[in-house]
Amino acid sequence: MRLTGAQALIKSLEMQGVEVMFGLPGGAILPVYDPIIDSSIRHVLVRHEQGAGHMAEGYAHVTGRPGVAMVTSGPGATNIVTPLADAYMDSIPLVVVTGQVATSLIGTDGFQESDITGITMGITKHNWLVTDAADIPRVVAEAFHVATTGRPGPVLVDLPKDVANAEMEWYSPGPDDLDLPGYRPVLEGDPAAVKKAAELVLAAERPVIYAGGGVLKARGADALRELAERTGVPVVTTLMARGAFPDSHPLCLGMPGMHGNYTAVTAMQRADLLLALGSRFDDRVTGRVDAFAPDATVVHVDIDPAELNKIRRADVAIAGDCRIVTEALLAALEALGLPHSASTRAPGGGSPADAPAGAEALAGTPAAALPRSRLAPWRAQLSEWQERHPLVYDRSPEGSANGLKPQFVLETLRDATPDDTIVVSGVGQHQMFASQWWRFDHPYTWVNSGGLGTMGFAVPASIGAKVGRPDRMVWAVDGDGCFQMTAQELVTASAERIPVKVAILNNAYLGMVRQWQEMFYEERYSEVYLSPDLPDYVRWAEAMGCVGLRVESPDEVGPAIDKANDVDDRPVVIDFRTDAFEKVFPMVPAGASNDDIVVDPAQQEGGR
Fold it and tell me: Quick one: fold of 191-388?
């Protein structure tokens, strides 16, 4: 069967199970857009190529399947560089197809030419410049294999226009046709290292499981929960791992890091064993590295061998898939005598990070989980920290004089939505408030930009998430600065009837930058004021085909959220006027030790 390269590309995508792609046509990619008309693949037409990349990321986050985006050459390709870098940092599987000028023009500075394979070499797992139409089925199969195996990540296929127009004889590539010398991800952990890790777990007196985003990428949430429950070891979940372990579980300590809660941060500092699963010792978690967890023996499990010993030297380093290694660790623990029936199932309730369960929650962990009840004093200490330093904010009427408290808005939104609601955030104060005050009891319900910290992520990523999980309610929590960067994609959502909901925490500032300037630059506010009324978010939302609402008083918050939840035929945007002076606490200052954590003024000596 003879096909053009363009037809072969679309057929190859169909054979990979692609159901939806996000993109924007242009001259160099135009031949590929013609066969889309006859394809089963749904194409979502974006308003900016960056939006296509972030939508593909949101889709991949919530489904576990690779997100697919297609854009043209030159500026189309460079506009999707930021999503590629974002996906690379957060290990998100993406397959991006870019158009390219004809092969005869490559290197001549032709119209809309850019060396996109060169540009993206450092932010993709691999990329391909296709110069022969006959290679297309094999290259597409290789692209999906690389994106989804080992440590997931983005890949790019660059397709020149003349190659897309050329004819080839169709074939369906098999596993033996893939040409990937040296690419053999290791999934199984070394048995000797796994046994050593098990021995360290059983000997520890102050252990902490440091769960990172790799747990979710490996579909390892159930294995993590079984490990925690059978050993009684408490769990911290990084920003990228929120939902990997239920916040309502009595062994959950919540989020560590620069804006993590006091107990999670301090538990890691005082631990004698850190069992790091799919986490990379990011600087936002460690603070000053030479002062991080000084007394801890480290067991580090990661599918990417390059992460082992990169930042913190591990006493036991295990290269392998988090789920597979965790299951092997459970087997090793059982072989060493760990009881099989230990259970700490949570009956429900609030987040231990907020200390609603108090000492009783952790004290309820079965003493049989570890020999000689070794962890009882550690659990008591954790409970004491939880009770002394819960997450707090000023709930007094005077606390609303400068606008709504963002924490109050998020608590109200959390309590008014299903517990499996997918929450997508931008980057900044609102991101930290959302991670702190939401309760994540289900995996794959938290979507955010972690490593790259990409402002403008939330709106397009929420659209991609809703496309991937149309059965779920999807709320984007955004800041006014972030929203202004990619809000045009709500036109896409309106045109495609994708009913996402957006909560703008509008404090009229670049909030996190303002917080740093207030705390560390003597309140010298340089270029951070945005204005609460320019633009008019309600009218802007309505102009994009959305329902627009504005909320300025606490008694309006609940009804506005209820109204938004009832709308299911178009996007909704709520402009919440929030307190510009509210800061995110706790906070570890940049470059400081985690021991220097700054708690809310109400918990500091002398109170507010």
Answer: Rossmann fold (3.40.50)
CA dihedral 509→515→520→525, nearest 10 degrees, is 20
Yes or no: is domain 2-177 CATH 3.40.50.970?
A: yes
Which residue among the candidates 19, 112, 556, 603 is catalytic per the annotation? 112
> Using CA atoms, how far apart are residues 112 and 101, in angstroms rounded to an integer?
7
Which residues, other chains included, contact 439 with Cβ-Cβ below 8 Å and sequence gap of 6+?
247, 248, 350, 351, 414, 419
Distance CA 63, CA 317 (A): 30
Q: Which amino acid is at 296?
A: A
pLDDT tens digit sequence for 535-544? 999 999 999 9
Q: Known catalytic residue: 217?
A: no
> Is 49 among the residues known to form the active site?
yes
pTM reported for the whole predicted model: 0.93
What span, in angstroms and rounded, lies between the C-alpha atoms of 241 and 235? 11
Catalytic residue list contains 484: no
Give the C-alpha separation, 96 to 49, whole Å.
11
Q: Per CATH, the architecture of 397-577 is what?
A: 3-Layer(aba) Sandwich (3.40)
Question: HEC string of 466-482?
Answer: HHHCCCCCEEEEEEHHH
- Residue pLDDT, tens place only, 327-349: 999 999 999 988 875 444 433 33
Of residues 400 and 374, more confidence is placed in 374
**102, amino acid identity:** A
Structure tokens that stand for 579 in this block: 């307190």
Q: What is the mean pLDDT of the chain?
A: 92
What are the pLDDT digits (tens) for 50-104?
999 999 999 999 999 999 999 999 999 999 999 999 999 999 999 999 999 999 9
Mean pLDDT, range 538-557, rounded to an integer: 96
Q: What is the pLDDT of residues 219-241, one digit of tens each?
A: 999 999 999 999 999 999 999 99
Query: How far apart, in whole angstroms, are the C-alpha atoms of residue 88 and residue 452?
Result: 9
Catalytic residue among 14, 111, 205, 387: 111
- Please report the DSSP string for 191-251 in residue order: HHHHHHHHHHHHH-SSEEEEE-HHHHHTT-HHHHHHHHHHHT--EEE-GGGTTSS-TTSTT
Given the residues 161, 195, 217, 405, select the one marked as catalytic.
161
Contact indicator for 239, 435 with CB cutoff of 8 Å: yes
Domain ranges of the chain: 2-177, 191-388, 397-577
